[in-house]
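We examine the record.

___
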Amino acid sequence: MRITKEEIAHVAKLARLQMDEESVELFTKQVGDILAYIEKLNRLNTEGIPPASHAISITNAFREDEMRPSISAEAALSNAPQTEDDMFVVPKVL
C-alpha cells in the first residue's frame, strides 16, 4: 500500500498539525516504510501459531500480600501542619 503526500497532509490537517513540505515528505517516507513492513508481515504464514500478547512468556513478579509492621499514626502525623482525629486536614477542593 502506497501512501501519498496528499494523504499525509490531509491527516495532518485533520489532526490540526501544521507541517511544512519537508515534514510532509519525511512522514510520507516513514509511514510508507511502516506500511511496507506491515505488508511483509502479513505475508508470513502464521497458521497454527497461537496469538500472543508478548514476544516471550512472562510470569507475574508480584509477591504475596503479607502483614508487616507499619508506621504508627502518631509518627505519620507528627509533621502535619493540621490534623484531626488521626487524619490529615487539607483544604476543601470543591
